[in-house]
Design goal:
The chain is built from nine helices and five strands. It has helices spanning 21-29, 34-42, 57-62, 78-86, 108-111, 120-133, 135-148, 170-182, 188-191, and strands at residues 7-12, 48-51, 64-70, 89-93, 113-114. The two termini are 19 Å apart.
């Protein structure tokens, strides 16, 4: 639960401010601005860990309540899936990214936040308010992250879990989603709002 987590929020990763010239140039060429702005907004916050890559990043994520998952040079972000292994609440900061629902098996709105990238100060204030005034919501979201992490564990073929689906793995999820598309059911874009937050 969040009581054993030392960090309020974390993000470490490459960006246009990298000390490696080739990396910095790559991010600048894509006009990627979310990561540098995110670091600027969260850098002086109490109990946060943000900046360039660090060797201990997975340990840091495992000690954070919120894992900030900004887009990189594409709308996709590996930080989102790393958050499930670390057990922190993913905060998706990529306006155009649509996460996989695996045929509606992953309730993204119950276990994550997706926020408009132009309002990072609002995000910081919202996360502080959520942690201060809605601890029960935060605890439930952390439980949901743990419960649904099996949908992102590519190292286990099929895991039987307590769920209506009985089998929980990304392999089963991909097959389930493809089957839904084949049968003419709605896609992710029709079932998820563009942005979401719990309260």
């Amino acid at each position: 639960d969040e009581g054993r987590r030392n960090f309020f929020a974390t993000f470490h990763g490459q960006h246009a401010g990298s000390s490696v010239p080739q990396v910095a140039e790559k991010y600048r060429s894509f006009n990627e601005t979310v990561r540098p702005r995110l670091i600027k907004v969260f850098a002086n916050e109490t109990s946060t860990s943000v900046g360039l890559p660090t060797i201990a990043y997975m340990e840091t994520m495992a000690q954070a309540v919120f894992c900030l998952c900004p887009q990189g040079i594409s709308s996709y972000t590996a930080r989102l899936f790393e958050a499930f292994f670390a057990g922190c609440i993913p905060v998706i900061l990529s306006n155009d990214y649509i996460p996989p629902t695996y045929g509606h098996s992953v309730p993204w709105q119950k276990l994550s936040i997706k926020w408009e990238t132009s309002d990072l100060i609002g995000l910081r204030d919202y996360l502080r308010m959520l942690l201060a005034d809605y601890k029960h919501v935060v605890k439930d979201m952390l439980r949901q992250v743990k419960r649904y992490s099996c949908w992102f564990d590519w190292f286990v073929m099929n895991r039987v879990v307590e769920s209506r689906d009985r089998v929980c793995s990304p392999y089963a999820g991909v097959l389930k989603q493809l089957s839904a598309v084949k049968d003419g059911h709605t896609s992710n874009t029709e079932t998820l709002p563009k942005f979401w937050w719990p309260v």
